[in-house]
Amino acid sequence: MRQVSFPSGETVPALGIGTWGMGEHPGNAASETAAIRTALDLGMSVVDTAEMYGNGAAEELVGKALSSRRNEAFLVTKVLPHHATLRGTIAACEGSLRRLGTDSIDLYLLHWRGAVPLSETLEAFEHLQQAGKIRHWGVSNFDVADLQELQLLPGAEGVAADQVLYNLTRRDIEFDLLPHCAGNGVPVMAYSPLEQGRMLNDPVLLRIADEHGTSPAQIALAWALRQPLVVAIPKASSPYHVQEVHRSLSIELTPQDLADLDSAYPPPTRKGMLEMI
Questions:
Q1: What is the DSSP string of the chain?
Q2: Angle subtended by helix axes 86-100 and 57-65, to nearest 10
Q3: pLDDT (tens digit, 9 = 90+) per residue, 142-195?
C-alpha cells in the first residue's frame, strides 16, 4: 500500500478507516468491531475516531476492537474545540485514553477551531507529548488562513496533519489548501471521501466503474487517493465494506477517466469556503 509521510518522517498507509457513527447501536457492535479488525488485517492501520462521535461510544468500540491489537494500529482521535483549553485538552485526552483502553494516542487533533486561543491548545498538546500520552498532534477543518496563523506560534512546526472534507463533490481544497499543505509537507486526511454514499449513483461514476469492472465507491476512492499527500479514511462498518474500499488501491484511473470526472465534477477555479459536515 502507498505510504504517506508525516513531517517527522513517520509513514502511514494512504487508506485507513473512519468510525463516525459507529458504536451508537449495540446491534451493530459485532459487525463494526469486525470491520476495524479486518482493516488491520488488510494493512489499513489508520483508525480515526473522536470524542464527539456518539459522545465517546465510537472510542469505546475502537478500544474493544483494538484490545489485543493496539500495536498494529495508528490511532487518531480528536478534542472538541470547547474542551481545548490547557486543562480541558488534558482532561479530554485522559477521557479518550480511558475509553480507547490505551496509554498513548498516535495522532491527536483539534476537531475544529473554536474560541480558545490556538496557543493554549498547542501548550496542552506539548504537555501531552512530554507526558507520552500523544505521539503527534494536528488539526482538523483548518483552512489556509488558520494554518498560517498556527504556523506563527511557538511549537507549530509540530503540526502533523490537517483532516478535512474532501471528495469528488467537495474539491475546493484543491485551489489553495492542498498546495499549501504539500508545500509544507503536511498530509491531508480526507474524511467522508465517499460523501456518505450520496454521489454513488452518478452516471459518470457508474460508467467508469463498469469499464473497470468495479464499483462507484472504489472509483471515488481511487480518485481521492491519486493525491500523494492524502490519507483517505472512509467509514466502513462491516468486513465486506472494508474489503470493498481496500480494492480501490488496485485501480489505476486513466487520463480519460480523470478528464471525465473533471467534466462531471469540475475542479475549483477560485477560492471557496472550507466545507464541513
A1: --EEE-TTS-EEESB-EE-TTTTS-GGGHHHHHHHHHHHHHTT--EEE--TTGGGGHHHHHHHHHTTTTGGG-EEEEEE-GGG-SHHHHHHHHHHHHHHHT-S-EEEEEE-S--SS-HHHHHHHHHHHHHTTSEEEEEEES--HHHHHHHHTSTTGGGEEEEEEE-BTTB-GGGTTHHHHHHHTT--EEEESTTGGGTTTT-HHHHHHHHHHTS-HHHHHHHHHTTSTTEEE--B--SHHHHHHHHGGGG----HHHHHHHHHHSPPPSS--PPP--
A2: 50
A3: 999 999 999 999 999 999 999 999 999 999 999 999 999 999 999 999 999 999
Torsion of CA 112, 115, 117, 122, to 10 degrees: -30
Is the confidence at residue 1, as pLDDT, over 90?
no
Mean pLDDT score across all residues of the chain: 97
Q: Which residues are catalytic?
A: 53
Please state, in angstroms and rounded to a whole number, the distance separating the CA atoms of residues 139 and 132.
19
Read off the pTM.
0.96
Q: Residue 49 corresponds to which cell in the numbers above? A: 475516531
CA distance 220 to 248: 8
